[in-house]
Amino acid sequence: MHTFHAFPAKFPPQLPKLFIRELTEPGEVVLDPMVGSGTTIIEAVLAGRRSIGFDIDPLALRICKAKITVLNSGDVCVAGQQIVEKAQRALDKHQSTLEKKFNSRFDDKTREFIDYWFSAHTKLELMALLAEIEQVEDDAIRQFLELTFSAIIITKSGGVSRARDLAHTRPHRVDDKIPRPAIPEFRKRLEKNTKSLLNPVEAAGTANIHFGNSETLPLADDSVDLIVTSPPYASNAIDYMRAHKFSLVWFGHPLIELSELRGRYIGGENTSKFEFAPLPDLSSSIVAKVTRMDRKKGATLHRYYSEMTRMLSEALRVLKPAKAAIIVVGSSVMKGVDTQTQDCLGEIGESVGFKLAGIATRILDRDRRMMPARFGGQRSTQIEERMHEEYVIAFYK
Questions:
Q1: In terms of Cα–Cα distance, which of 42, 24, 18 is closest to 207?
Q2: What is the per-residue pLDDT for 140?
Q3: Are strands 206-211 and 50-55 parallel, antiparallel or unpaired?
Q4: In this predicted structure, what is the pLDDT of residue 373?
Q5: In contact, 204 and 46? CB cutoff 8 Å
Q6: I need a surface site. Which of 54, 115, 284, 377 has the fewest CB within 10 A?
Q7: Residue 197's CB: how many other CB atoms inside 10 A?
Q8: Quick count: other Cβ atoms within 10 Å of Cβ 290?
Q9: What is the pTM of this model?
Q10: What residue spans in the chain does CATH classification 3.40.50.150 cover?
């Protein structure tokens, strides 16, 4: 299930699995307030816990919900094969109809984006697939098929668009790239994902996934037994929406809507009309250092630590006394200044009322963590140099 769909910088399942099994009992509540690809949620379900997840990224929610849904693989295979056959037939015999569907589906700005990143033939292939997927009556199966559709667009390499490196959220158009044929790619991806469907016997726990902001959780005080989450980097170092919009536009999200939503992500760069939080000493000094180098970057970092202050305050509120919150983060360098994210968040957590148990360091395995790729024989990249390790912060209430 963890391989259903590419997702940048997702942490290895062994981390949440360890904390969930050691720090909670079956039936207790595990929260991830920023679910991302759903790693914590899946491991909680497999461990027989009750999991709750929130995110504002529409694709993250789709990925997580599909991963934890129990489906009959035979039913999925039948539905998928029918879609492939009908889509191919429509592509062979009804291209004009597909062109009309495409032109009526998107607004001008969104259509311009798709025209730039997808070839004329690929657009028709994808339109043919999507038109058939949307006819599937079973919500759970349709959701799984839509995720399979998205997975052939956002990939580590290859893929059906003109973009390179979508899986790492740093797309670049390659004019001489030959996109892979979408319908055969969909068939192959469907076979792969179907083999990894959640086994009903393994699904010992439950999951509830919701659209929601980690800074204002609709949960009661003292209602959660464990929090395990991995917040984004500051300053959009990994810009999720930059890649996710390649799939989301096909699902009916106008480009302008996605741009507005991107501005609300934790770690975003827009600081106009933003409500900054007061910071403790170390965090404040780091922000001041960055500000002296670049005022805008300093404000961006202040925004990030402000958002994390509110997130940690909410985490403290909903967590039961004597229970733990595990935060897995990466640091970064802004204008030559190490943001010391792990130490700043440790300090911020203590300032809102947490006890800090400790901070551990993990060296990143680039292949497993899916960090930005190298090109052109580069030995390393600027972003890679900033992201070579991550930190596990352990708080308790």
A1: 42
A2: 94
A3: parallel
A4: 45
A5: yes
A6: 377
A7: 18
A8: 25
A9: 0.90
A10: 14-59+205-396
SS3 readout for the chain: CCCCCCCCCCCCCHHHHHHHHHHCCCCCEEEECCCCCCHHHHHHHHCCCEEEEEECCHHHHHHHHHHCCCCCHHHHHHHHHHHHHHHHHHHHHCHHHHHHHHHHHCCHHHHHHHHHHCCHHHHHHHHHHHHHHCCCCCHHHHHHHHHHHHHCCCCCCCCCCCEECHHHCCCEECCCCCCCCHHHHHHHHHHHHHHCCCCCCCCCCEEEEEECCCCCCCCCCCCEEEEEECCCCHHHCCCHHHHHHHHHHHHCCCHHHHHHHHCCCCCCCCCCCCCCCCCCHHHHHHHHHHHHHCHHHHHHHHHHHHHHHHHHHHHHHHEEEEEEEEEEEECCEECCEECCHHHHHHHHHHHHCCEEEEEEEEECCHHHHCCCCCCCCCCCCHHHHHCCEEEEEEEEC
Q: Which residues lie below 8 Å from residue 385, measured CB to CB, with a gap of 6+?
A: 333
Quickly name the fold that domain 14-59+205-396 has. Rossmann fold (3.40.50)
Nearest 10 degrees: CA dihedral of 158, 162, 164, 166?
A: -90
Token pair for 46:
């497999």
Stated length of the chain:
397
Partnered with residue 210 across adjacent β-strands are 54
Please state, in angstroms and rounded to a whole number, the distance separating the CA atoms of residues 309 and 285: 16
CB atoms within 10 A of CB 23: 17
Q: Does the pLDDT at position 82 exceed 50?
A: yes
Write out the two tokens for 52: 């709750």
Question: How many CB atoms are located within 10 Å of the residue 322 CB?
Answer: 9
| Count of Cβ atoms closer than 10 Å to residue 256 Cβ | 11
User: How far, in whole angstroms, is CA 231 from its chain's centroid?
Assistant: 10
Rounded CA separation 362/225 (Å):
25
Beta bridge partners of residue 206, listed in sequence order: 50
**Bridge partners (DSSP) listed for residue 23:** none
- Does residue 102 carry a pLDDT above 90? yes
Type of residue at 330: G
Residue 179 has a pLDDT of 86
